[in-house]
Amino acid sequence: MCFFVAPGNSHFRERVPSPPRSRYRWSPSREFRLLAAVSARSPLACGLRPPGPPRRLGGVSAAAMVLLHVKRGDESQFLLQAPGSTELEELTVRVARVYNARLKVQRVCSEMEELAEHGIFLPPNMQGLTDDQIEELKLRDEWGEKCVPSGGSVFKKDDIGRRNGQAPNEKMKQVLKKTVEEAKAIISKKQVEAGVCVTTEMVKDALDQLRGAVMIVYPMGLPPYDPIRMEFENKEDLSGTQAGLSVIEESEAQLWWAAKELRRTKTLSDYVGKNEKTKIIVKIQQRGQGAPAREPVISSEEQKQLMLYYHRRQEELKKLEENDDDSCLNSPWADNTALKRHFHGVKDIKWRPR
Question: N or C: which end of the chain has fewer CB within 10 A?
Fold first, then answer.
């Protein structure tokens, strides 16, 4: 027999029968097998805990990632996550790819809104011509006869002369517009305020939704010269357009942070350090355009509030300077002899004739 002493209480005794020594003789191999058996049966018995889901901080996973707030000039574009060990060559290409894909979605959405209002694109040789000129030149829109929207069309003339005016009916128009709104929400700049990171897969999903909506309204497809179809097939020609100036080639893209260019031969941790839970503001720039402007010390809204405060303060000081009324000197609190009269006991004495 042996005695077991409970920890923290030396007065408590409990009789516990001792096991036979020959059967439970201690040995390193026996102890190792015992621990292995216990841990295999129940991980919690060895102090282990099953891994839980990653925490989320402000819409961003709490995993070890550097959060990049990508800007173009002074305008916010999107949020992106990357490990600190990421090569800047890979990261720059990734940022440029997401940036250009968002521009593609914006262009497709803009054209799909026109498609819902005025139908498909006219052939290049018929754009900008009046009906009389088209009749005089004996031009014919062959694709316009094939590409009839589902459920019939409604004539709505395009004043610019780019589309044939055979718009989809109201039901099909709502299909296009609703899909456009959903795609815009995915790539919206409000995602930055919500703390949602935009990935290449998200942008691809937005393009797939737009492509599906077009296939629903136009099962036969769009003409090969229609800009929407050219965007889907990556055959768009943006040369000489304002949209083409916004596109940044992946090989010509540069990332800037803290007035320093993030050189592609280094890693992200070479600039931001080993702390993975870091948020930085990077600006994407095209090679040869120089360093972008620095971030302002205070935001535009804070600057407005500061200017408003100083304007109000200046107006208050002007009113104080103009106010020369000294009637307040007759007040009791302005009497210099009030303390003396209080101790003499003649504070409230009033003299008046009988």
Answer: C
pTM for the model: 0.66
Comparing C-alpha atoms, which of 81, 88, 86 is closest to residue 65? 81
